[in-house]
Design goal:
Length: 209
């Protein structure tokens, strides 16, 4: 059986990278983020793909559009790929909101995957939303190559669920930079990582989460 290939990509740099942006924040890209998207497109065009999917949030769509164009495709929006719902944490600065975010991370690493601050989506809830989407896309493209543009925590949760050698305890050990590529392959039984957090156009800004 031919293996299925998935490039799981975080959107490019936002126009306010030092702010928490959950599903509640439909922010666009920075000027550098727009350039990153084109650099990503040039890099991925040589690999080809059957389809490009993305969340409905502007930052993901703006990253996916040049990638899809370089491949002669149009991005297909899947609303369920949206960023984590973070309630009142969305729009807060790194300094102001870090303790709230850190507590969720601490609880997840300890195994309490249903925990979240009030109004926030838990690790387990993200998994229940996103993992069926990725499984459906794999089934739609057996033996093919697809590209999915999503969000930082969404990608972390996916990787920590689908890779055999990773668990939620590895949360802080999986970096997901802006415009980073995670190259995955499914052999008909399980996913394996060919490359994690491959960055073709680094950002001077450090993602909040």
């Amino acid at each position: 059986m031919k293996e299925t290939s998935l490039a799981l990509i975080r959107h490019a740099e936002t126009s306010a990278p030092n702010i928490f942006h959950g599903a509640e924040s439909d922010i666009g890209l920075s000027a550098w983020g727009e350039q990153q998207s084109q650099i990503l497109a040039d890099h991925l065009a040589t690999r080809g793909a059957e389809a490009v999917y993305c969340s409905a949030l502007r930052r993901a769509v703006a990253t996916a559009k040049p990638i899809a164009a370089a491949l002669g495709l149009s991005p297909i929006v899947i609303p369920e790929l949206h960023e984590r719902r973070i309630g009142s944490l969305s729009g807060r600065s790194r300094e102001d909101g870090w303790d709230v975010y850190q507590e969720s991370k601490r609880r997840w690493v300890a195994g309490d995957l249903e925990f979240s601050h009030p109004g926030g989506e838990s690790f387990a809830e993200i998994g229940r939303r996103v993992l069926p989407v990725l499984d459906d896309l794999r089934r739609r493209h057996p033996g093919g190559r697809l590209i999915v543009v999503a969000h930082g925590i969404v990608i972390r949760v996916a990787l920590l669920n689908i890779l055999q050698d990773r668990t939620p305890a590895d949360f802080d050990g999986v970096a997901i930079d802006f415009a980073s590529i995670n190259e995955l392959v499914h052999d008909g039984d399980r996913w394996r990582a060919e490359a994690l957090n491959l960055v073709t156009a680094p950002s001077p800004a450090r993602p909040v989460a």
